[in-house]
Amino acid sequence: MLDNEEILSETLQKNVFNIKIDRENAFIFTLSDLHIGLGNLSYIKDIINFIYSIDNAYVVIGGDLTDNVIHGSKGSILENYCPPQEQIKLAVELLTPIKDKILVLIEGNHEARTQDAAYISITQMIATLLGIPDRYKKEMAIGYINVGNDNCYTYADLHKHRKTKNYYDFYNVECLILEHTHEFNFVEKPFVFHNKYTKKPSIRFRYEINNGSALAFPSYAKKAGYSIQPIGTYVIELSGKKRNIKIWKDTDLYDAIERGYK
Q1: What is the domain range of residue 142?
Q2: Which helix (H) or strand (E) segment is 202 a member of?
Q3: What is the CATH number of the domain that holds 230?
Q4: Does a structural domain hold residue 166?
């Protein structure tokens, strides 16, 4: 018998990850659009060191991990501080200290340049060199993150995406990360959660997060007339006690932890 729901559902399974975190809270970083080779190396090293210093920090490696300028693409190899082959090596060196904190890695349009031209996945290569090939989830990721005793949070990460308002509400997740545009803002959206066991509705919140980047206004952006976008990434704090989601800018969380926040 035909089962259209099952057919469609099966297409998502390759993108799914699950993790159980037995902590009072967890910090989920999404490092997207680092553009290693062009992205600000000081920032990249600082944010990785920051993640390494937090015991209960975990990270999703988003798209455009490398800048990967190829023949005919946007950007200029003359502006890069290392060519694509060395970008792969540098990415592995930078991420090795936090490889055990990496939940998944996904592709970006810059990595897709090589995949489209030569059928070689730079992201899968980096995951394999890091010794975590199973955490490569191709073009996007859907996650179920269990924190504490019984709090399961839903998460999705997309790289290249449509900018139409509310377009991705069909993913129905509490934390939706949208990469690629480097816009660095988020929207909080209340929704009605229907508990099928208690037969009671309640209000919860979902977050649509446009993540930042490590690019410091490169030449291609100036030539194209793009506006300056801030450097940075958002951090999602998930509570293991009372169900709660808190969104931090990386700099705000850094300042809070320096003052003793845990």
Answers
A1: 15-160+178-185+212-258
A2: strand 200-210
A3: 3.60.21
A4: no
Query: Does 207 map to a domain?
Result: no
pLDDT confidence of residue 121 = 97
Q: How crowded is residue 11: how many other Cβ atoms within 10 Å of its Cβ?
A: 8
Q: How much is the pLDDT for 220?
A: 84
Residue 86 resides in a domain:
yes
The structure tokens 């709090």 sit at: 151
What's the structural domain count of the chain?
A: 1
- C-alpha to C-alpha distances, 143 to 13, 45, 113, 196, nearest whole angstrom: 11, 26, 26, 22
The C-alpha atoms of residue 126 and residue 3 are separated, in whole angstroms, by 37
pLDDT confidence of 72, banded at 50, 70, 90? confident
Residue 53 placed within a domain:
yes
- What is the model's pLDDT at position 1? 59
Q: Above 90 in pLDDT, residue 97? A: yes
